Amino acid sequence: xxxxxxxxxxxxxxxxxxxxxxxxxxxxxxxxxxxxxxxxxxxxxxxxxxxxxxxxxxxxxxxxxxxxxxxxxxxxxxxxxxxxxxxxxxxxxxxxxxxxxxxxxxxxxxxxxxxxxxxxxxxxxxxxxxxxxxxxxxxxxxxxxxxxxxxxxxxxxxxxxxxxxxxxxxxxxxxxxxxxxxxxxxxxxxxxxxxxxxxxxxxxxxxxxxxxxx
Length: 214
Hints:
The protein is built from eight helices and no strands. By secondary structure, it is mainly α.
């Protein structure tokens, strides 16, 4: 019997959808390879989350390490999302920019760890700083009329809105036999589909993306 049926099944649905999107991206020549890798890691994290909610939560001993592993997978997915963003917005030769921006979230977590506030929750909170950097880069891209900017921003905002559903009072979602975590999983499907559409749609030749001025 599943420990947390609704979160397990909703995470399974999210994982299957994202993996399917990753497979489809692999058949599309347009997107940068980092997009595909980000989708693969995000899908794997969701599938691992399904196992965590359904089976591992039965064990108090393994629940913590399992959640830490899933969080690490999310961190890798966000890293590739940032790498794809840097490549699309600034160009492929901005490795230093990637590491500079990546150090924002990592540096914040190191500070929390040194001050005794380390943990999975703190790690994921610090990743929101990296997501803010990603959104800022796409905002800059929109200013310069990058053809992918608006669709990607819409997808990122949808994902942020999905994350916000985790703060909903459980009494609100109880009427549809779901909990906030399950609502988040299902809402995140919308964000991932929008991101897939943003990076996979063919671009008109006269609007090919180019590196923005430094």
